Amino acid sequence: MNNLMLVSNRASEPLALLVAQALNIPFTEMIRRTFADGEQYHAFPCDPGGRDLVIIGATHSDASHQELLDLIQGGRYSNARTVNVLIPYLGHSTMERVKPDSNEIPKGITRTRQIFRARPDFVAFVDLHSEAVLHAHGGEVSTCHLWTDELAVAQIRASNLRDYVLVSPDYGFSKRVARLASLLGCAHTAADKDRYDTDKTIVGQVSSVVRGRTVVICDDMIRTGGSIIQTAERCFEAGACDVHVMATHLVLAGGAQTRFEQSPIRTVIGSDSYPGREGNELLQVYSLAPLLAEVVRSRLRRR
């Protein structure tokens, strides 16, 4: 641990501070300045040469993505012994494939490839939408997909819900929901969802297993919340008595939080992977810090 140096891009500093506390090491804040022409200045406050550099950085925006690339290559330029990257939220992660003849750019792949080509030694991702991005390199980077199952299960148990059933908003996520249900010892089912535009879906129906029970709708991320709210409505139509939501990545774009506040959904449970998310009457936010700290410890034990 004495050889460890923990930094982050600006957006993920609150989470990085919690990880540093969990590891009982100091957090190293980057020196940043903005020039009159908008160019960004970065400097390490101490020499990372010969040290194991750990960089925490969500890539939810172009600026955060670029800053992460700068930190990785800065570590390489300064001769860090190893450069280890933890990405709590990967931007563009739903764009890992393209429709035939669409001429789309699969930014989930191309942007992750940029991260790999910056030459980190190790990159860990949290609850990826698709594992396809793990293979967007030529084999020279060690990767890890971190699942939040244990944190999610602990959060549901701490919520003191009774007689609940887990519901996936579509069949694509049903395997993950089944895994959570097996850990919780509860029933699970999936809704029938169809996507007809970039941010538009139709949720058809939900099994009657939800009748008279509390529902926890589980997903990897909440972007606009449209399909989640539709799933909640179908659950109530099928006889559910109460509905809660759990998702790892609380993007909540385009007024999503207001829509949730106006919906019959009781609470939204999620992590602090997406920068700026804090708990309130609607949101129950848990931290990824224990999970990220453990992967750092595990990485060091292997060296």
From TrEMBL:
Pfam families in the cross-refs: Pribosyltran, Pribosyltran_N
Domain Ribose-phosphate pyrophosphokinase N-terminal, first and last residues per copy: 5-98
Keyword Ion transport: no
MF terms in GO: magnesium ion binding
Record's GO cellular component terms: cytoplasm; ribose phosphate diphosphokinase complex
Biological process per Gene Ontology, one example term: 5-phosphoribose 1-diphosphate biosynthetic process
UniProt keywords, alphabetically: Nucleotide biosynthesis
Source taxon at top rank: Bacteria
Domain spans labelled Phosphoribosyltransferase: 154-263
UniProt cross-references to SUPFAM superfamilies, sorted A to Z: PRTase-like
InterPro entries from the UniProt entry: Pribosyltran_N, PRTase-like, PRTase_dom, Rib-P_diPkinase
Family: Belongs to the ribose-phosphate pyrophosphokinase family.
PANTHER family per record: RIBOSE-PHOSPHATE DIPHOSPHOKINASE FAMILY MEMBER, RIBOSE-PHOSPHATE PYROPHOSPHOKINASE 3, CHLOROPLASTIC
Protein name: Ribose-phosphate pyrophosphokinase
Species: Candidatus Desulfatifera sulfidica
